[in-house]
Amino acid sequence: MTVLILDQVTVNIQNKAILKGISFELPPSSVTALLGHNGAGKSTLLKAILGILKIREGTIQLAGNDQITSFLAFKSSISYIPEEPFLLSELTVQQHFQLYIESYQLDPHKTNQRIEHYINTFEIHDKVNQYPEALSKGMRQKVQAICALLPETDLLLIDEPFMGLDVFATDFLIAEIKQKAERGTAILLTTHQLDRLEGLANYYMMLQQGEIIDHGKIENFLELKRRFDQS
Ligand SMILES: Nc1ncnc2c1ncn2[C@@H]1O[C@H](COP(=O)(O)OP(=O)(O)OP(=O)(O)O)[C@@H](O)[C@H]1O
């Protein structure tokens, strides 16, 4: 069974090919690390899957829905934590949570219990009635992460999940990502913090100049890295 299927996906930005014929599949209950140097195309790939960037060629299927012909069903199966927190300036923290409850049609009672748990764990209980401008970057990142964790989607995309988070929040987010994967979600995350991948990721894909140049089980990548670091 497969959650996400990309077939020969090409994305151009300003007439330049940024993604060149990307094909891969993600199984359920998996965490895949999307790796590569700055500018390799990692964020572009996540944005292409989300439909924020239009694909030029190829197809993307999620849980049996085509990105173009079944866009609403496709979109409702994805949750996303962007690299830069993107919160609405006119909504308080609590109103952001409410927005997610409504747009993903979540059970309010159960979800509010989870929100309470997240708020306490991330220590932002005194911020729930504040607007994003009153939050630090790390706090905005925490709010964005909570929003994305609320729905049980087929796919969770995370761009640099640990950027700006303190060690405690990072450990908590890692535990949450693993639990989500155990419940069936396919997770695709980008990171430069390779030391955080052990025990978290199952697979890796290496992007270079818009092409997947290597992929496989994360143990193989980490073993190669260890040998390289020792040499
Ligand atoms: N809006 C844009 N306009 C022009 N070029 C862009 C735009 N967005 C991305 N690019 C280019 O696309 C390429 C891939 O960028 P992308 O942000 O996907 O890289 P990345 O792998 O996520 O890098 P990083 O590790 O630095 O976050 C880069 O060459 C970048 O300059």
TrEMBL record:
Cross-referenced InterPro entries: AAA+_ATPase (IPR003593), ABC_transporter-like_ATP-bd (IPR003439), ABC_Transporter_VariousFunc (IPR051782), P-loop_NTPase (IPR027417)
Sequence ranges assigned to domain ABC transporter in this UniProt record: 4-231
Species: Amphibacillus marinus
Sorted UniProt keywords: ATP-binding, Nucleotide-binding, Transport
Protein name: ABC-2 type transport system ATP-binding protein
One Gene Ontology term of the molecular function aspect: ATP hydrolysis activity
PROSITE patterns: ABC_TRANSPORTER_2
CDD domains (UniProt xref): ABC_DR_subfamily_A (cd03230)
